[in-house]
Structures are given as structure tokens and as C-alpha cells.
Write a structure and sequence with these properties.
With 249 residues, the protein is an alpha/beta fold. It has 12 helices and 7 strands. A 5-stranded parallel beta sheet has the order 1-7-6-2-3. β6, α12 and β7 form a beta-alpha-beta unit. The protein is globular, with a radius of gyration of 18 Å.
Amino acid sequence: MGLKAAKMLHALTDAIYPPQCAGCMTLTDAPHGLCPTCWKDTSFITGAICASCGIPVPGTSEDGLRCDDCHANPPDWTQGRAAIMYTGVGRRVLLSFKHGDRLDLARTLAGWMAGAGSTLIETADIVAPVPLHRWRLLSRKFNQAAELARQPQISGACEYCPDLVTRIRSTTLQKNMTREERLANMAGAFEVPTRHLNRLKSKSVLLIDDVMTTGATLSTLSRCLSDAGAKTVNVLALARVAPGRSRYI
């Protein structure tokens, strides 16, 4: 669907259904927004952030800041951003989208991401989602990262390639795993199809995911893309898990 057609469809939907809060479903003044109560309980990431993973850091905002984790374990991508912390209303909205079949929230969530990652979107040649294995996709029915990535706020001005990378090996669910365990779990799980190698060469890729936990999956994907010829790989997630919480996600 083109950008113009998507905007027309969204306008028609807004005209039929009254605007509701994305967090608690109470009526709101603007479509796809948050009521004042839910807004206060959503941890949008602002101020000084780590340039690598997007997590808030102490101090004043400046280029090149790095959190302690990224100093100790530099990620395999260049820059990373996230829109919200994985807590409060933001977490509830994300889980409704991911596990509650609330695909209508994709446009709202993509708008939050576009605000946080505008510079990464502007410099991207190709936007691609973190892929699901075909068996996981069959059981879940949709890839939440792909639903976010294809929204016009993120991919409207560049090439969107939903199968730029494929997951060739089913992996164990990573809840309760450490970063090292997640890296081992992801090893050899992805590949760039031969048909996309020429498309990828010397291009800047923006990877989209719903949640960044330890960054192990995104690092594995970034290495795969760089080895296949990508010039740079950046990452943009909807939510960032706070340090120390990765074993619970």
C-alpha cells in the first residue's frame, strides 16, 4: 500500500471510530494518542542517551555518549535508539500489540519510534524488520517488528524489505537467558538470501524491532548484514529494557 493510500485509509478509520487512548481505551481528543493519566505513566526516552543502545544515561545530552554496558560490550551495529522504556503503560500497550492482536496500535507505536529515531530513518537506504522463524510466524500469525517497520512514518521515504534477512534456524525462547546465552542461542540463526546481496551492497540498513533487551539478537543480525556487504547497520526499537531486567524478558 502506498503512502497516499495508507493516509486515506487511516483518515477513513478515524472518521468511523471515535478516538480512544491507546493505553486504557478511554475517549481522547486526538486519534491514537494517550489520555493524560496514561501519558504520565509512559516512560518516553528523552534527554541524554547512549548513542549505541538508546538507553538514558546520566549527564547532559551530547554526541557519542555510551552507557557502561556498551563500553564493556560494544554492539555490532553503529547507532541505536528506542522510544520508550519497557515499563508502565508503554509495556502494557506493547504487550497488547504483540500478544493481543492489537494491530491497530502499529501506527501509534511507529510514530513514537519515528520521533526517537528520526536521524536514523533519514539516513537509511533500506528498512528491515527482525525476522521470525516460519514456525514462530505461523503460531503468532504476524511479525510485530514487520508491522512496525512497514508503517509510513518509518519506511515511507526509503526501501522497505521485509525479507532482507531470514531466520534459517528456530531458536529457543530467550526469557531468563543472559546476554552470553542469548548470543550463543542466536549463532547461525540468520542469513541474507542470495537474491538480496546486490541490493544490500554498500547500503545503510535500519533494523526494526519491538523490544531491545540485551541486544544479542540485533548484534547477530548486524554482523550478518555487515558480512553480506552492508555499509552501516543501525537499529531502532520501540522499547528498551532497563539493565538488570534482561533475565525477566
